[in-house]
Design goal:
2 domains, 10 strands, 42% helix
Length: 353
């Protein structure tokens, strides 16, 4: 899809659509503008609400995050075979605007409660109830799970959404739209999302430190349209590489101390599996077959090379979410008969054996 005439931005392309391109003679562009305007002040308050409710310090969940998700969606849609109708774009862009907004009341089930914001603000009339319900399902599939036959089911897109909905030229693809949102959100972390000043003055809640440090270290996630590659570019300071940070393990209700390098390994493996999952719904229009990860470590000397070799994550063996970084990339991360880890990096940087 060629968005070059619209600053390579789906939202800008959408805003220039004519009313005649939508069904029912409804001015969906005006309605979208109204929703964005009504939500503007709420987005500014999401972090404060989440921090109060969960005693956490979230990375930015404001308009800058919304813009980053739209940017990554636009990159995904820049694949030559990818396309989206203006009616689909309305569903998707509204879902983007609301997908994280209920973090203001806590992270638990925030994805499932997104459309409640329309009741809260008394703006239900801006969007038809049927459309709003479908948008809510698209937004809800960006995270979490749901109860299916008394078990938690993670495949929300596959079970909750149809492949197609509506008819004729106004048909939409809910699974495709939800996968776009979910994957773009996965690729939306970056340095600018971290609360860098709060980290500097030690005002980040214990449970959020390692998540903030991860965002701070992630310089960019670059989608390469039509190449089938996404590049993750990290930079680790020596100060952050040689200490452990606390991490809360929700599934066992306990804490562990973890090196940032090990968190990066874990997070890139998660991104790998999220990519594989979303490809079910995005192919054949969008295909990503490889994540390339580079981790630069702060140099003591300008001539020093980063000790951590780059690695790539590709589909390998029989699908198994229990694979870790060594299972997937062990050949690239070998070190003196073992493998690179946070502990090994700390010893390398401090001169310890």
């Amino acid at each position: 899809m060629d968005l070059s005439g619209y600053n390579n931005n789906l939202e800008q392309w959408f805003i220039e659509r004519a009313q005649s391109e939508f069904p029912d003679g409804v001015d969906y562009v005006a309605n979208y503008r109204s929703v964005v305007s009504k939500l503007k002040d709420i987005h500014l308050q999401v972090n404060a609400g989440a921090d109060f409710t969960d005693e956490t310090t979230l990375t930015r969940h404001d308009a800058s995050h919304i813009a980053r998700v739209i940017y990554q969606i636009s990159k995904l849609l820049s694949y030559e075979k990818a396309t989206i109708s203006c009616y689909e774009a309305f569903h998707l862009l509204i879902a983007v605007q609301i997908h994280d907004i209920k973090n203001s009341e806590g992270r638990e089930d925030h994805e499932n409660n997104a459309i409640e914001i329309f009741n809260d603000l008394n703006i239900n009339g801006l969007i038809d109830n049927r459309l709003l319900k479908n948008i809510g399902y698209i937004a809800s599939c960006h995270a979490g799970s749901y109860m299916r036959e008394d078990k938690k089911e993670k495949d929300k897109i596959g079970y909750l959404l149809p492949i197609f909905m509506y008819k004729d030229k106004f048909q939409i693809r809910p699974q495709f739209l939800a996968a776009l949102l979910r994957l773009a959100d996965e690729y939306a972390d970056e340095t600018g999302r971290a609360m860098a000043y709060l980290l500097k003055i030690d005002k980040v809640k214990k449970s959020s430190i390692i998540h903030q440090k991860h965002a701070l270290s992630l310089r960019d996630v670059a989608i390469k349209p039509d190449a089938g590659i996404v590049e993750f570019d990290y930079y680790l300071t020596k100060e952050d590489a040689i200490v452990k940070f606390p991490k809360y393990l929700k599934n066992v209700d306990s804490w562990e101390d973890k090196y940032l390098l090990d968190e990066i390994f874990e997070r890139t493996v998660k991104s790998h599996y999220e990519t594989i999952y979303c490809m079910r719904f995005l192919r054949p229009y969008i295909t990503i077959s490889k994540l390339n990860v580079s981790i630069e470590v702060e140099k003591g000397n300008i001539l020093d090379k980063s000790p951590i070799p780059p690695y790539e994550l590709v589909e390998k063996g029989y699908p198994n979410e229990n694979y870790d970084i060594i299972d997937l990339c062990g050949d690239s991360l070998r070190k003196n008969g073992g493998y690179w880890s946070g502990e090994n990096l700390k010893n390398y940087l401090t001169g310890e054996k």
